[in-house]
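Lecture 7 notes: from sequence to structure.

We start with a single chain of 221 residues. Read the sequence below before looking at the structure.
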Amino acid sequence: MIAVNSMLFDLDGTLIDSKTDLANSINLMLADLDRPPLDEAVVGGFVGDGVRVLVHRCLTATDPNHQPPEEALHAKGIALMHRHYAEEMLKTTRLYPQVAETLASFGNKRKAVVTSKEVRFTKIILDYFDIARYFDAIVGGDTTPARKPDPRPVLEAIRLLGGPAADAVMVGDSENDINAGRGAGARTCGVTFGFRTAEQLRVSEPDVMIDRFEQLKEFFY
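Now the structure, written as tokens:
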């Protein structure tokens, strides 16, 4: 068991299963730009670095010659993605099992969401699923100049919560979460039920790996 004072959580692929709504939003954007659709698994593999990178990857993947988009097309794709996601974001997205119950069980811990998603969308989702009350801070993709795997978003969350990085754990489903947490000096916990496979996650060597969200209670107190 590892003692922690602060718990930091990724959002997509960690607290929520949002893959279908993200993929549908991307494919609506691609349709607007006369591009072919992408499989949900492909889009899921592109998630984790914020909407700018997600759109860039999807436009590159759907270009006939796999060329990256020009700046104007990229900007148009981002605007379209934001518009569609605002309408699609809660159609099929759900909490992973035992998320609310497990967060409640850590009521004595300071908690933050550290995500590459914009804060405005993050707040809507947390409120919709009635878990906003469990978090003391939100660090989104538009909060700091850098996104995970840069450690700065994690460091900002630790600053907002108070306490040293050594007493915090970063929980997430991707190598970006693990690398950002480690870079900030925090403990790291990888979840295998998200958008990456256990094999992909294991490469980043998190301190702990769990297959179900409630297993946090078996490793941290």
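The beta strands are 6-9, 16-17, 94-95, 110-114, 137-139, 168-172, 187-191, 208-210. Keep this in mind for problem set 3.
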